[in-house]
Every structure is written in structure tokens, then in C-alpha cells.
Specification:
This protein is α+β, with helices and mostly antiparallel strands. It is built from three helices and five strands. α1 packs across α2.
Length: about 90
């Protein structure tokens, strides 16, 4: 399912226009990105998903072609966790 399909499904389910559904989806993505970028709190949709920023420590890796060590600097990543309702849906229940 791509974004257009998702917007159409949301609009049909919520009985709103596709334009309104697209605006809500865009706003959700923007707000989630802003909160994750700050890193001081999680974004939780109860039973569905949790988004949070995590810190990745600096480490040394190896170039698989040459075997030379590479220094990878510390940085941040995003952790997305499935909630209970999403996990149940994945089981086909």
C-alpha cells in the first residue's frame, strides 16, 4: 500500500475528503518527526506504534571488501515498536 492508497482508505473509513485525510497524515508525520528529533519523549499511539529516538554509541567496524577498520561516529536512530493491537493483527487474528 502506498501513500495514495493509504489516504484513500483513511478518507473512506473516516468519511472525510481525500484532501482532509492527506492533511491529517502529513500533520501526523510532521509532528512525529519533530518530537522524535527533540529526543526527550516518545510518540505513542496506544496499542499501535511507539516511536522514540535512541542514541547509538561510536564504534569501529570493518570494510567488508578490504578488511580495513572504519570509525563510525556516535549518532541517533529511531526505534519503532509495535503495540499489542498491531501484533495481534499481524498474527491474522
Amino acid at each position: 500500500m502506498n501513500r495514495s492508497d493509504l489516504v484513500t482508505a483513511l478518507a473512506d473509513r473516516a468519511e472525510v475528503t481525500r484532501k482532509d485525510a492527506d492533511a491529517v497524515l502529513a500533520a501526523f508525520a510532521e509532528v512525529t518527526g519533530e518530537i522524535v528529533a527533540k529526543g526527550d519523549e516518545k510518540v505513542t499511539v496506544p496499542g499501535f506504534l511507539t516511536f522514540e529516538r535512541t542514541h547509538r554509541a561510536a564504534r569501529t567496524a570493518r570494510n567488508p571488501q578490504t578488511g580495513e577498520p572504519l570509525d563510525i561516529p556516535a549518532g541517533y536512530s529511531v526505534k519503532v515498536s509495535a503495540g499489542s493491537k498491531l501484533k495481534e493483527a499481524a498474527k491474522g487474528a
